[in-house]
Specification:
The structure is a single chain. This protein is α+β, with helices and mostly antiparallel strands. The chain starts with a helix and ends with a strand. It contains two helices and eight strands. A six-stranded mixed β-sheet has the order 5-3-2-1-4-6. A hairpin with a 2-residue loop joins strand 7 and strand 8 (about 140-145).
């Protein structure tokens, strides 16, 4: 009889721990998991309307199909400031649409269809009066050489 009592008590404790782990476990473990596996994520596509840099953070106003979003980046601020311009299409990965979003994952950034990153051939003018100051393009920036 004592064996059955220990077995049933162990089974009851196991069931209680299982139910508790299922209900409270994800909330307790989520802060320690990477963002990519910590739950349902949604891809939100939008257009950068305005960009503002304030010290060590970058603020973007993004127009989406769900409505406007104010996106704040606090990591890789300098890189994102160089990458993004008003008019660019961005794809953000967030837990869901929200008016204010902090540090979402930037999945993709596209320039507008009419914008050209850099000309395909350098523009040089051999008959120019400037002679040695020919205009060339390097990395999307016009350089005088």
């Amino acid at each position: 009889m004592k064996g059955w009592l220990i077995l049933s008590f162990t089974l009851a404790i196991g069931i209680a721990l299982g139910v508790g782990a299922m209900t409270k476990g994800p909330a307790l473990v989520a802060p320690y998991l990477p963002k990519s596996i910590s739950g349902q994520r949604e891809r939100i596509d939008g257009e950068v309307v305005r960009k503002q840099r304030e010290g060590n953070r970058l603020l973007l106003k993004v127009a989406t199909a769900q409505g406007p979003m104010l996106v704040t980046f606090t990591q890789k601020v300098a890189e994102l400031d160089l990458l993004l311009e008003p008019g660019d299409r961005v794809e953000l990965i967030t837990p869901g649409y929200a008016t204010f979003v902090e540090d979402p994952t930037l999945e993709r950034a596209k320039k507008p269809a009419g914008a050209v990153a850099a000309p395909s051939s350098p523009s040089t003018s051999s008959g120019s009066p400037q002679g040695s100051q020919e205009k060339t393009w390097r990395y999307g920036v016009r350089v005088r050489s």
